[in-house]
């Protein structure tokens, strides 16, 4: 059996999805899940792009032991050095450097000629190799590159010491036949190509990312770059769970390949990412969508009862999908709670369990039955915080239903005096935010706002995700409650906590440079 | 150029998505959009499955002129006759009959042998042909069928007069190579196959539905079955917009093919379907997702400014994607409103415009600027209703933020006396629903509940979708408002209106039989 390396770029290319920005603490938590999932390489970020991004890579590198941790770098000395520095504490560091090889990118974006491109590739790869043994080189926009030049570029990278060569379909433009032709040519023409790992990295602009990735594997790629839930730039990257399960469910094509992925962790990691980013996969998303294993039609249900195989090529259990079950009530103890979390895939530390139990008791007091979704909402809220809680919601009362709504809010700041504000607004959330705005020490502007119900019922826990602009910076906030108005108020304060924390640090550290690519 | 027929099954297989159930009025409205989109065949439903479903097919058949309207039927006389009857008013009717051809389905589900299957196919197809000229036959689970038997089954259907032969990948199990092998064999072995249209119908359980559909076209299929947004059983069907745009964006493979799809209508129809079903495509869904054309990374943005082609293989304009723009305010007139709706792709009737304008003025009074999303929410709410408004919300006042919330609700029923109820609950929506529950004439249970913000800001219009079980039946409700508590209350009353209406009709007509398949 040949092993297919799974290179997860959820924290780098995935985080480039508008709305998917993660804090360092969130990235560390997701990295730990990716470790448990069994991915081979975690791309942690793009160290040079900002001090905050640099720090994220450092923290991720420190927090996992088994997987390789990669840092992205353009083909410049500054980028490569910064990546090497960020990866200092990684048990298995990799520098991932890249340069575009298509004429369109060389001429129009980089404004350099092909020879200059080759020189930069040689310098970047050998410079990286001088610092770290494991070096990956990506030919950005490979699928639109002139094939002869692509081969020359790959040859230079291999000769300079790259151990992995990645050929990305940067703009999601490839047909499987393009991937086949490209890989066959590179394998036939590049000297020493059999000593490096070939990799593909596909985007889903035409819905072909998974098919292209599988075609890559069929044609010699031994690494696939992908993301959980398929998040990423534009239409996203190839979805990790779909590639892994296609390899597993289609043994007639892929029985000579294996991955190290623990398939039962696919749904838990998908769910965690959705909580962290507020981006839920659509119900009919393959493998991890809420309906992926739901059979609605009577004929299907009838067939399933007679023989599950009639309409099921894999079972929900294989990928760790769970139905919604009511499990716990107010008389459930700490031990039962810990066990249920463990069954859901989360082994809580003693401190985490203390916190979760307090919230659970509060919730169980208000709801008759507590669902798995509620437990996850409890767990995710309040973990993974970067900033200490500076603002405290002392009191909230909102009247709504009629127009306008009005809100009374009392907030304290760092244990100081409680201040009160009242405001009217269009709906309860508008009124509440206007009142909080009166009390906030800075001007702020709401940029994004989403509500999700964790379960299905009217007393389900609602999760609010939002982002607020303060000065030039944007801060994300998140909170969960059975009362969505309360959740909204606390999500806003959560964002303000981060703004408060940032003010205490060097402001420049929080200006995101946003230079990520590939 | 060869034409690829687009067979849209959003109203049949798509509606089998849990949560995507549509009323007759909604189906008619979606069918009109599909007509404007340019699809060749609209599969309107499965007439025998329930009187309500029968009526939907009748109404859709009456409401469109250009496209073929198909009705699904198992391979039985009863099903076929019912489909023919439902299609009586269609300008271009098609009976779509099917039988499973895989041994697994024959033995375990249908419990018949292969000879009996062939007999049933012959009878169903010739019986359909006796009534309607245009007959499609589908070999359910074709991709898992024994190839020799599949060929025999197709031969029988062709000989019996089927003009379209569809080979579905019912369980989403096929690799493109399977599709290629199957189509090549059927084309080589079946006599008269060149006189019928071959069709593929792919499911996305492994993320391969689009690749499989394209492989089908490359191997002789001249019809693709697909759905808007890729909704459908489990992981859904092949996505219409992805297939159509792949054919268009990859001329190096597909320049000899064309479809009749008006690509600029892809995003509007996607948006309408999301409003109708409450199932929004995830942000990174190809073509129609909110981020499909969003470029987050600095390098990408930099490249785009220099030359859009560096990171863009198609433009948002090509598929009718619009950025969020603020367009209208309280001083905008009726004419400006009508023009903006027209620009968004909706030409409102005079009555629709009257209604929309009243709501617009109300909204413009409460919000400084009215966004396109708000206009769409206004338009979608209240159109496409099957039931007259029986319940009227006379007064609503809710206090929340603290635990518990309390609500005062006054409701009148069919112009009768106003009744008031008060209730407490866990959060404002729980309290409101409990109070309405006190006033409702029947026991009800909330089954589903989702909130979506139409725009991004805190005063965006929120849309609530829910479903309620009353007796044995489930009723969907929907409403939009800047006050989400108000929207929730009105969505619940909308569902109760439908329950009230159903009570007045024969109860049996509303018991869904749910027999759909393929």
Quick structural gist:
The structure is a homodimer of 518-residue chains. Chain A is of the alpha/beta class and 518 residues long.
Write a concise keyword list for the protein shown above:
homodimer, 518 residues, alpha/beta, 8-stranded parallel beta barrel, 17 helices, 18 strands, globular
Notes on the structure:
Two copies of one chain form a homodimer. Chain A has 518 residues and is an alpha/beta fold. Chain A is built from 17 helices and 18 strands. The first copy, chain A, has helices spanning 24-37, 51-63, 77-86, 103-110, 114-129, 147-159, 176-189, 209-218, 240-249, 251-254, 266-277, 298-306, 334-343, 350-366, 372-380, 428-439, 484-504; strands spanning 2-3, 5-8, 41-45, 68-74, 93-100, 135-140, 164-169, 197-202, 223-226, 257-258, 326-328, 370-371, 391-400, 405-413, 419-425, 445-453, 462-470, 473-481. In chain A, the strands form five sheets. The first copy, chain A, has an eight-stranded parallel barrel, surrounded by seven helices. Chain A has a three-stranded antiparallel beta sheet with strand order 13-14-15. In chain A, α3 (77-86) runs parallel beside α5 and α6 crosses α7. The model of chain A is unreliable at 506-518 (pLDDT under 50). The interface between A and B is large, with 125 and 125 residues. β13 (391-400) of chain A pairs antiparallel with β13 (391-400) of chain B, so a sheet runs across the interface.
Task: Using the CA coordinates, give the radius of gyration of chain A.
Answer: 25 Å
Quaternary assembly? homodimer
Order of neighbouring strands in the sheet with most strands of chain A: 2-3-4-5-6-7-8-9
Q: Structural class given helices, strands, pairing of chain A?
A: alpha/beta
Number of helices of chain A: 17
What's the story with the biggest beta sheet of chain A? 8 strands, parallel, barrel
Overall 3D shape of chain A: globular
What is the tally of beta strands of chain A? Answer: 18
- Helix fraction of chain A, binned, reads 25-40%
Largest interface: A-B, 125 and 125 residues
Question: Could you give the distance between the termini of chain A?
Answer: 30 Å
**What's the mean pLDDT score of chain A?**
88
